[in-house]
């Protein structure tokens, strides 16, 4: 009888009416031994005696087996097998109310007769049912001497008196509390109704607020899409005249054109420089608008990181012209990665360019390493650093850390936001670790396989 019900503790048979008192006593003793609380002991014993009464009315010789399941959710089980078959449909309605006293009750027609199974979960504070404890419980139950029906009746009377005393104490406390409440505030009911009305009104307001939030969310998405379209259209329209300005400036300073005075040459150079900065800003806006609009689709392929690092080393070397700054691109610890080569190179180029702009002395280093099932690219510099409270703000459009000045070139505030969006498109993320005076480390984490 072990099976899923657990290890048996003891068993007995129901032959005469007196056995109903015995099974009730044993049920209470077993419940107490495994750790059920006093009220649960009474419920469990009552359920046993009632099921025993119903089974005995159908005929004698029903077997009662007590068992416990110490593993998983500790549970106390009782199996009551009656030798008469086909009684399940008749007994189940009679035992429906009894089922409320336990956690589970099943009435089935088994191979040897009608079987009633009951179970009660043990409370969290119950002692652990170790093998030694189970043997101790069996030993205690084996030495249990059943009392007479009068003894059991006395116990039931004591339990009833205790329950009545508890109910009376609760009734007295309730009466006292009601008297105090009535004395201190006779308008409680009126206040309750008022609060109920206010709560209903608040609920209606909350529902309306959720509807308004949904509407605002739709409007916000529409505004974001409109902003992306605006940036894309304006950036596209600005590129042509800005490019024309740069071309005209180049023509004015060309050797085949008329000579310009020194002041005119300086002004034309200023125009060309400003136009180049404006073109950089326009291109950044256009790239950002494409990323926000979801128009960038990655082209997945196997990327040779050694070749990419070599290309970055060659293209960015002209920017690292200051002898005070060591520009280092380590040999990749990961030979290849499945990603979009163009987008990945763009992210790393943005991070390296940004580091070179804001590092006055020390070093700028690019490295890569495997981390579990991911790959981490790190761009570390020895610049001025970023306060912790501004770590997320540097990824906002057009934001620059107060007091920070680029050592070379000009910052637009678009490189880092664009790099983070590209990192998301590649299935990864971009974060920064930095402290003022300790430099910054930007980490791009991507999955090893896409």
UniProtKB/TrEMBL annotation:
Main location: membrane
Reaction it catalyzes: ATP + protein L-histidine = ADP + protein N-phospho-L-histidine
Pfam families registered for this protein in UniProt: HATPase_c (PF02518), HisKA (PF00512)
Molecular-function GO term, any one: phosphorelay sensor kinase activity
CC terms in the record's Gene Ontology section: plasma membrane
Coiled-coil positions: 150-198
Enzyme Commission code: 2.7.13.3
UniProt name for this protein: histidine kinase
Annotated source species: Actinoplanes missouriensis (strain ATCC 14538 / DSM 43046 / CBS 188.64 / JCM 3121 / NBRC 102363 / NCIMB 12654 / NRRL B-3342 / UNCC 431)
